[in-house]
Design a protein that fits this description.
The protein is of the alpha/beta class. It has helices at 15-18, 31-40, 52-61, 90-93, 105-110, 126-134, 153-165, 174-190, 193-198, 201-208, 212-218, and strands spanning 3-7, 22-26, 45-48, 66-69, 97-101, 117-121, 140-144, 171-172, 226-231, 236-241. It binds D-malate.
């Protein structure tokens, strides 16, 4: 069986191991939740960019692209959309190219450029992602984005739930087993997945900024059938649509 490993921060990635592997970038609050939502609502593609300046330049050159993202959780001046999944409605993003820069998530994606394939994961597309991954025979690396280079509980929980769901198709190494057990423990001790995610420091920060609804949205399991796929050659994220499957 192919193997499954995990890192709690992209800075811990072993670039050699990444070659030939599928990297799954996870930024539950909020980049990868927002990306899945944007594609579900008809965005043509998303171009993840590490810096605000590059995002402005790319959006300027790309006709009718929307400039999207955040710094410190807040939409930068002149941007059309911030990083709230709720902003990415069909009306706002249908048929459009989105140039997206976020503090941690888009940086993590570019740190996985060497991988055989880069997919993105969140709680909302967990079922679709697991359906997709369970058919693959490559080694999988779950890459938690973290927040400002600190480990984020919500990303670790999502990685742990993916590890649990892939048990029959991919052999977890100790890093994946650790996150699986931590995720199940956190959910049990808080009483629910939603409460476990709400207990994270990033959720508290988003609450303070008035984005509590985003935290609740991002905690909904498997409501989105899209698996975003980043192609470093084109620089675009597009969606693979999966029939939904409820996880146990
Ligand atoms: C990030 O990529 O840093 C996050 O999505 C930040 C956020 O908007 O909460």
């Amino acid at each position: 069986m192919p193997t499954l490993s995990a890192v709690t921060l992209p800075d811990h990635l072993d670039q050699e191991k990444l070659t030939g592997s599928i990297a799954v970038v996870i930024d539950v609050l909020r980049a990868t939740t927002t990306i899945a939502q944007a594609l579900q609502h008809g965005a043509r593609c998303i171009i993840p960019v590490a810096s605000i300046d590059s995002a402005r330049m790319i959006a300027h050159k790309r006709q009718s692209a929307l400039l999207c993202g955040e710094r410190g959780g807040i939409k930068p001046e002149g941007f059309t959309l911030g990083n709230s999944p709720a902003e990415y409605t069909q009306q706002a993003v249908g048929g459009r190219d989105l140039v997206l820069t976020t503090t941690n998530g888009t940086r993590a994606m570019h740190m996985c450029d060497a991988a055989y394939e880069v997919l993105t994961g969140s709680i909302t597309n967990l079922g679709a992602l697991v359906n997709e991954l369970s058919t693959r025979d490559q080694h999988i690396v779950l890459v938690c984005s973290g927040t400002d280079r600190k480990v984020s509980l919500e990303d670790a929980i999502a990685a742990g739930l993916i590890a649990q769901a892939l048990q029959s198709t991919h052999t977890p190494d100790d890093s994946a087993t650790l996150l699986r057990d931590a995720a199940l423990g956190a959910i049990q001790s808080h009483g629910s997945l939603e409460l476990a995610i709400a207990s994270s420091f990033h959720a508290a920060r988003l609450n303070d900024l008035g984005f509590g609804a985003d935290v609740r949205f991002a905690s909904q399991r498997s409501c989105c059938p899209i698996v975003p796929r980043f192609d470093p050659a084109t620089g675009e994220i597009t969606g693979i649509e999966q029939p939904q499957k409820t996880l146990g």
